[in-house]
UniProtKB/TrEMBL annotation:
Function: Catalyzes the conversion of 3-deoxy-D-arabino-heptulosonate 7-phosphate (DAHP) to dehydroquinate (DHQ).
Keywords, sorted A to Z: Amino-acid biosynthesis, Aromatic amino acid biosynthesis, Cobalt, Cytoplasm, Lyase, Metal-binding, NAD, Nucleotide-binding, Zinc
Catalytic function, reaction form: 7-phospho-2-dehydro-3-deoxy-D-arabino-heptonate = 3-dehydroquinate + phosphate
Top EC category: lyase
Domain 3-dehydroquinate synthase N-terminal stretches: 65-177
Record: residues binding Zn(2+): 182, 245, 262
Protein name as it appears in the record: 3-dehydroquinate synthase
Annotated pathway: Metabolic intermediate biosynthesis; chorismate biosynthesis; chorismate from D-erythrose 4-phosphate and phosphoenolpyruvate: step 2/7
Binding site for NAD(+): 69-74, 103-107, 127-128, 140, 149
Keyword Amino-acid biosynthesis in annotation: yes
Family label: Belongs to the sugar phosphate cyclases superfamily. Dehydroquinate synthase family.
Primary localization: cytoplasm
Pfam family, one: DHQS_C
Species this chain originates from: Bermanella marisrubri
Length: 359
């Protein structure tokens, strides 16, 4: 097992990464302050991992709530099911919520923890590659709104993150690829060497080679922990973790939550951001092609949905959380491995780039 730390003063916490961790009670128990635990999961993950997760808390009152599976249920209505369960089982302020699942469960459980009785502890046990490399770390929690992704939420850090790489054995191939999109993101935004590693190890990741997966998870979590430690609440640098997301969130919303997976939409969005970066003269045509090849190699989309228009993108991107005083800010690439947040592009270049993807 290896341990990383997210360095946030009195809100610091460890990320444990390894095999067989979901069987290790010694690891997690010290992060449970009270006697009550509420495990939040969904109807796909429960039959696979809920009994094992329950066994992590010997001697505690362990309750669970099973949500319907899917991005379409990441909303306020279904968030309420967590509060119903907490109140029905009389959980008090010393309770610990445990997110057992992918990013949807992690974001919802974290937000429930941020708001239940004005804030209780929570622990992340991420079971998808995407949640292991990204959503379980950093404390962004929340739910979607009909009019925009993750529009209702809070920053609330977990007490620890338990990443058991073995859970990836049951993950469908499409979900594995979606997770690889966020892994590629770290290479593109801060780590050129990691990008090169990904170019040579993509087949190992896709075949779930354990060493490759552990290396990708550790490198990704370390990159994210470093950025979050510098800027917990996205006042500046943290926005680079949003590469491809302004486009991607527009796609997810337009297509109906869950039809394009988050990672798929981010993959297409990263290509769109790379295309604009190329038009601005920041990255070369060869770099753009390299980015496309890597994303294609991960079995991810490099094009926008056919039924979206330039007007659709512009309308949906205008509600992005990075917009300031009506001005769109995008995460773009100055070079491969170097992202910046910028509004330093003309409407003409932006629209020309969009037109190259959609009608
Ligand atoms: N908070 C953040 O910083 C952050 C970062 C990235 C993404 N997100 C959010 O995360 C969500 C996407 O997360 P995701 O890709 O994990 O999707 P997800 O949570 O929907 O999980 C994907 C699918 O895999 C299933 N699953 C989970 N673990 C499994 C396992 N071990 N074996 C078999 N099936 C399993 C789930 O039931 C689901 O059907 C989006 O809502 C996105 O907005 C948040
Ligand atoms: O942790 C962050 O910061 C990120 O931006 C990580 C993203 O991968 C993630 O999808 C996040 O939920 C997007 O945040 P949002 O603020 O754009 O909703
Ligand atoms: Zn994301």
């Amino acid at each position: 097992m290896q341990t990383l730390n997210v360095d946030l003063g009195d809100r610091s916490y460890p990320i444990f990464v390894g095999s067989g961790l979901i069987e290790n009670t010694q690891l997690i128990l010290p992060y449970v302050a009270g006697q009550q635990v509420m495990i939040v999961t969904n109807d796909t993950i429960a039959p696979l991992y809920l009994e094992k997760a329950k066994a992590l808390f010997p001697g505690k009152q362990v309750d669970s709530v099973i949500l319907p599976d899917g991005e379409a249920f990441k909303d306020l209505t279904h968030l309420n099911l967590i509060f119903d369960a907490l109140l029905e089982k009389q959980h008090n302020r010393t309770t610990t919520l445990v997110a057992l699942g992918g990013g949807v469960i992690g974001d919802m459980t974290g937000y429930a923890a941020a708001s239940y009785q004005r804030g209780v502890d929570f622990i992340q046990i991420p079971t998808t590659l995407l949640s292991q490399v990204d959503s379980s770390v950093g404390g962004k929690t929340g739910v979607n709104h009909r009019l925009g992704k993750n529009m209702i939420g809070a920053f609330h850090q977990p007490k620890c993150v338990l990443i058991d790489i073995d859970s990836l054995t049951t993950l469908p191939d499409r979900e594995l690829s979606a997770g690889i999109a966020e892994v590629i993101k770290y290479g593109l935004i801060t780590d050129y060497e990691f990008l090169e590693w990904l170019e040579t190890h993509m087949s190992s990741l896709l075949s779930r080679d354990q060493d490759a997966l552990i290396y990708a998870v550790l490198t990704s979590c370390a990159a994210k922990a470093d950025v979050v430690a510098q800027d917990e609440k996205e006042g500046g640098i943290r926005a680079i973790l949003n590469l491809g997301h302004t486009y991607g969130h527009a796609i997810e919303n337009h297509q109906g939550y869950g039809n394009w997976l988050h990672g798929e939409a981010v993959a297409a969005g990263m290509i769109m951001a790379a295309d604009l970066s190329h038009r601005l003269g920041w990255i070369s045509g060869a770099d753009l092609k390299r980015t496309q090849s890597l994303i294609r190699a991960a079995n991810l989309p490099v094009d926008a949905p056919k039924d979206m228009s330039v007007a659709d993108f512009k309308a949906l991107m205008a509600v992005d959380k990075k917009v300031v005083d009506g001005k769109l800010r995008l995460v773009l690439l100055k070079a491969l491995g170097q992202a910046i947040i910028s509004s330093d592009f003309g409407l003409e270049e932006f629209e020309a780039s969009l037109h190259s993807f959609v009608h």
